[in-house]
Write a structure and sequence with these properties.
The protein is of the alpha+beta class. The protein has three domains: about 130 residues, Gcn5-related N-acetyltransferase (GNAT) (Aminopeptidase); about 170 residues, Aminopeptidase (3-Layer(aba) Sandwich), CATH 3.40.630.30; about 90 residues, 2-Layer Sandwich (Nonspecific Lipid-transfer Protein, Chain A), CATH 3.30.1050.10. Helix content is about 25%, strand content about 35%. It has eleven helices and 19 strands. A twelve-stranded mixed sheet has the order 1-2-3-4-5-14-6-13-12-9-8-7, sandwiched between helices. The chain is globular and about 65 Å long. The two termini are about 30 Å apart. The model has no long low-confidence stretch (mean pLDDT about 95).
């Protein structure tokens, strides 16, 4: 369905921030007014921000943008990725093909920028599959009781912890360095999907702590773990909120991020977060399914774990995307791929790689071993969703049954994919 003739996609400069926020409030209702956000740092990259206008009106009827990530982690590599964000259509202009037109524009914009993949976190998971995005990583949310028992880790008790009120100038670079380093561990493997805040706009927006958006919470705090040499090895940013119940305080610690470079530091960090006075529970969202805290808790059920979808991946340039990542085992397989929106991806492709190496991806006339849509290829791209799960759900056709096992191992990765922020 093409964009109606009286609508057009246009670049949106920073000078139109008020128009963007006005449209955003229509697409995503908020308790706050446009004025609340006007003087706050925006996360948008304005050279990758686009709106839709209707002839005869200066108002935005829709908007979308991309974060240009140049070091986005995929299995065994860092690549360019166009992260789709701030997608919204005014409710008075729905069902006119506007969203599809914006997605098509985003794909072309990414390809022009040299980005072989796009990714996003979805406000509504049912939307993006029809555009070829596949769910590639899930994350956990935990609510951990205060004082929850942790397994011992040698050397943990000797580590020092500093607690301070968040200061972007003092703590921003420290936290960013640990965050990026965590995504590169274990050595030689790294964590797919562990995106860092690469752009100045993302960094500034994340570092801000506006009082008018805190609600019942205090200002942001930070806990920093130091090793024997004074080197920071872990941090957590958090806020506390306090209410009083019938038998005393019932406070909550809302942890925004908790990142550690080794097991002892993780254990020490969590021992502090789980023992703050007047608190009853610690909440944290968007942690990878294999985050250290999931193994440190002696009673993981008490943390009330809940699984959420997080990262959706769209393959835009198939041969480049498949050759940029690495593979966990030897593989030599022929894929037949369908792609309704980007025909250049469709057809038969031979993928050959040695264990933990890059692949050679070439077109072929050979009979396919596996037949699947680009949506499913995106779902397995970060190595967290197995090809066997795709097959068992009837989302790929097995032409050569013996090919499934080796391909599933090759496309997997030893470290679970995930990011610990929504963007």
């Amino acid at each position: 369905m093409p964009l109606p003739s009286d609508y057009r996609i246009i670049p949106v400069p920073e000078s139109r921030l008020r128009d963007v926020l006005t449209l955003d409030m229509w697409a995503f209702p908020s308790e706050h007014s446009v004025e609340t956000f006007l003087d706050l740092p925006s996360s948008l990259s304005w050279d990758r921000s686009y709106g839709v206008e209707r002839t005869g009106s200066a108002d935005l009827t829709a908007f979308h943008a991309a974060y240009p990530l140049r070091a986005y982690p995929v299995p065994g590599a860092e690549v360019s990725c166009g992260w789709l964000t701030w997608v919204g259509v005014h409710p008075g202009h729905r069902r006119r093909g506007i969203l599809r037109a914006m997605i098509e524009h985003h794909f072309a914009d990414c390809l022009a920028a040299g980005e072989a993949i796009s990714a996003l976190t979805a406000s509504e998971p049912s939307i993006y599959g029809r555009f070829g995005y596949g769910l590639a990583a899930n994350v956990l949310s935990l609510t951990i009781p205060r004082g929850a028992s942790l397994r011992e880790v040698p050397g943990s008790d000797a580590l020092e912890v500093t607690l301070a009120e968040w200061d972007a100038a003092a703590h921003g670079e420290l936290a960013a360095g640990i965050h990026r380093r965590f995504g590169q561990l274990p050595e030689g493997l790294g964590r797919p999907g562990w995106a860092t805040r690469e752009t100045p706009e993302l960094q500034t927006s994340h570092a801000s702590d506006p009082q008018k958006l805190r609600g019942p919470h205090e200002s942001r705090r930070i806990a920093i773990v130091h090793d024997a040499n004074g080197r920071p090895t872990a941090y957590a940013t958090f806020r506390r909120s306090l209410k009083w119940g019938g038998v005393g305080p019932e406070g909550t610690v809302d942890v925004r991020e908790a990142v550690a470079l080794d097991a002892a530091s993780a254990r020490r960090l969590w021992s502090v977060l789980l023992d703050l006075d007047l608190m009853s529970r610690v909440k944290i969202s968007n942690i990878p399914v294999d985050d250290p805290i999931t193994r440190l808790l002696i009673d993981p059920r008490a943390a009330d774990p809940t699984l959420f979808d997080h990262t959706w991946v769209r393959i835009l340039d198939l041969p480049r995307a498949l050759s940029e990542r690495r593979y966990a085992a030897d593989v030599d397989v022929v894929l037949e791929v369908t792609d309704a929106m980007l025909p250049a991806n469709a057809g038969r492709w031979r993928v050959q790689a040695a264990a933990f190496g890059h692949a050679e991806v070439t077109r072929t006339d050979a009979e396919p071993d596996l037949v699947l849509d680009v949506r499913e290829l995106g779902a397995v791209h970060l190595g967290a969703i197995p090809l066997t799960a795709i097959a068992q759900a009837g989302q790929l056709e097995l032409r050569t049954p013996a090919a499934l096992g080796p391909a599933a191992v090759a496309w997997s990765w030893p470290v679970a994919a995930g990011a610990n922020w929504i963007f």
